Automatic annotation (TrEMBL):
SUPFAM superfamilies for this protein: Galactose-binding domain-like
Residue ranges of domain F5/8 type C in the record: 27-189
PROSITE patterns: FA58C_3, MAM_2
CDD domains: FA58C
Keyword terms: Signal
Key word Signal present: yes
Protein name: F5/8 type C domain-containing protein
Annotated signal peptide: 1-27
Annotated MAM domain residues: 198-244
Entry-linked Pfam families: F5_F8_type_C (PF00754)
Amino acid sequence: MKPHLFSRYVALWILSHEIHCALKVSAQVCNVFLVSGEYGVPNGSLTASSSLAPGHAPMYGRLNTSFVQGEHFGGWAPQSASNQFIQVQLNGLSSIQGVATQGRNVTNESQDEQFFFRVTKYEVAYSLDGLSWSTVMNPNMTAKAFQGNTDQNSIHVNWFPCIFEARYVRIHPTEWNIFPTLRFDIIGCPAFAANDSSDCGFENGICGWNQRNENETAVWKTLNGSNASSGQLPYRGHTCTNGK
Ligand SMILES: *[C@@H]1O[C@H](CO)[C@@H](O)[C@H](O)[C@H]1NC(C)=O
Ligand SMILES: *[C@@H]1O[C@H](CO)[C@@H](O)[C@H](O)[C@H]1NC(C)=O
Ligand SMILES: *[C@@H]1O[C@H](CO)[C@@H](O)[C@H](O)[C@H]1NC(C)=O
Ligand SMILES: *[C@@H]1O[C@H](CO)[C@@H](O)[C@H](O)[C@H]1NC(C)=O
Ligand SMILES: *[C@@H]1O[C@H](CO)[C@@H](O)[C@H](O)[C@H]1NC(C)=O
Ligand SMILES: *[C@@H]1O[C@H](CO)[C@@H](O)[C@H](O)[C@H]1NC(C)=O
Ligand SMILES: *[C@@H]1O[C@H](CO)[C@@H](O)[C@H](O)[C@H]1NC(C)=O
Ligand SMILES: *[C@@H]1O[C@H](CO)[C@@H](O)[C@H](O)[C@H]1NC(C)=O
Ligand SMILES: *[C@H]1O[C@@H](CO)[C@H](O)[C@@H](O)[C@@H]1NC(C)=O
């Protein structure tokens, strides 16, 4: 497990050098969408327990999908309402820290509330192998109920209580308006560049400092070795299991 550190700015102070001062740095960005966009998955990586119609297939469950008349219905919807899920196979082992959802996108011609399908509560499960699944839990070990959408098109983001390493993620709707229909994305760090078993060093991106818990203090040093600043780092989470 790799502890993560979230920050907008990163400063590196050179402590010493040999001959020339040379440094190679890359930073890993951990707030990108992992289902659609630059780091997104192919359509074949989106699956579901069932689909109401070809026009409600999992690939129409991508965030920001717009209804296209005669082509699809603006969101993934299962065949029946209960005990269903949409699943994404991420492009590799990824650190995930949140989920974004929207309701079904309905056309301007059908601004009728009977079509306002959306998910109002859901649960999240994640897996390393697609076979063995863990549910994101509350500290009291009940499944965490995430807040869904209150309208059709606003993006609602839920941040996890901590960060999970996952290759597969499932969204299980538990409450909905009319029918469980959604568009979603997963927020996290894209798959590790080198390979899954490699650690995250400078070559692969700064994706972990040895800050083991939220109370650890970071000290940045100046060239002459004095402490430039110290204090609590911006801390957004830690890898964990069972909601802790
Ligand atoms: C969805 O749309 C929002 C608002 O336009 C944008 O910020 C975001 O990057 C888009 N995300 C995806 C995955 O398309
Ligand atoms: C998914 O399929 C749709 C419809 O065929 C297509 O427009 C879109 O480009 C595909 N997306 C990806 C990421 O392949
Ligand atoms: C719906 O949107 C289309 C495309 O923007 C437009 O041509 C049409 O007039 C709109 N219909 C209504 C009822 O607003
Ligand atoms: C467990 O924690 C959740 C979230 O705080 C709470 O809503 C729920 O009522 C708790 N359940 C039990 C059995 O304590
Ligand atoms: C992945 O990394 C490990 C450890 O560095 C290495 O032994 C292995 O060959 C790599 N696998 C691939 C496919 O690059
Ligand atoms: C961090 O400090 C707070 C306040 O002293 C404490 O409640 C919490 O348990 C500490 N967390 C860890 C991981 O030590
Ligand atoms: C070390 O460098 C810092 C920043 O450049 C400076 O403020 C400080 O006075 C220096 N301390 C010593 C002991 O030279
Ligand atoms: C710099 O910070 C470290 C860690 O907190 C501390 O041990 C050390 O005494 C500090 N050095 C100075 C010169 O303040
Ligand atoms: C799709 O629905 C229309 C009509 O409500 C909105 O105007 C669009 O903004 C919306 N598009 C997306 C991507 O959600």
